[in-house]
Amino acid sequence: MTISNEISFISIENQNQDFPKHFHETFCISLIRNGIEKIELEDGFLYSQANCISITNPYEVHANPVVDRDAKVSFDTLYISGDFLSHLLNGKDLEFKNRQIRDPQINSTFIQLLKQLKSGDHSQSGLVLKNLIYQLYPHSQTPEREKHSSFQSDYLTELITYIEQNLEDKLYLDELAKIIHLNKFGFSKKFKTLTGMTPMSYVLMKKVFSAKNKISPDCDLTDLAYAYNFTDIAHFSHSFKRYVGISPKEYRNQLSLKLPILYK
After folding, report:
1. Which residues, given as ranges, of the chain have pLDDT below 70?
2. For residue 8, which phi and psi values (nearest 5 degrees)?
3. Does residue 229 come out as left (phi exceeding 0), alpha (psi in the -120 to 50 range) or beta?
4. How far apart are CA 170 and CA 251, in angstroms?
5. pLDDT tens-digit profile of 28-41?
6. Neighbouring residues of 62: CB distance < 8 A, sequence distance ≥ 6
7. What is the pTM of this model?
8. Contact predicate 80/6, CB 8 Å
């Protein structure tokens, strides 16, 4: 089974800017190497220091305010799709209530997997990944009921579908409000109440993450910027770094390390 579309990674060095409110459609598993990571969740803050793993669940809206701009944070993150994680656990669904894990053995497995992903030697990557998931499993729990994020609610279905289908166009607040029959002020308030994000922040985040998925080692970043209606490459790069943590060029350079992985 090819898992190249089910897991990805990113390495961030000396992060000293805030990440605005956003979410991932995957599990986001980070190992902090230096500094202190701060995650703002709906129910409070999570502080993770070096040698600690932090986890956010799919569709969990969060922000990453900087604790101290002079104390930069370095970390590695694995993004694993919920469906693939469930596949590795023989169909079990889970979520993490314990989002902060300190375990040297898990850290060692995480580092081993990351090294294999970066080196291109993927002969054992599948087995190491499965080992990591089984080590993390005791820190999770089975959801009490099937969970759907606010972005998947019936009320927003038509709107979210429209946004997804028009990410490469210029989207305006007025036209989005008309889809759910509200003026732009009522719409903005309703959307933020339901999701924790403003409508245009959501649109920008989706544009960035969609563009991120289309970056390849040989793609033209300027063409990609214009394809998603960014003003220019500088605007694209600034927006990309806000949500991803590195520039599109830096991300493209990391992609050269990501070769297809086969899981058996």
Report:
1. 1-5, 121-122, 144-152, 256-264
2. -145, 170
3. left
4. 24
5. 999 999 999 999 99
6. 21, 22, 23, 39, 40, 41, 56
7. 0.88
8. yes
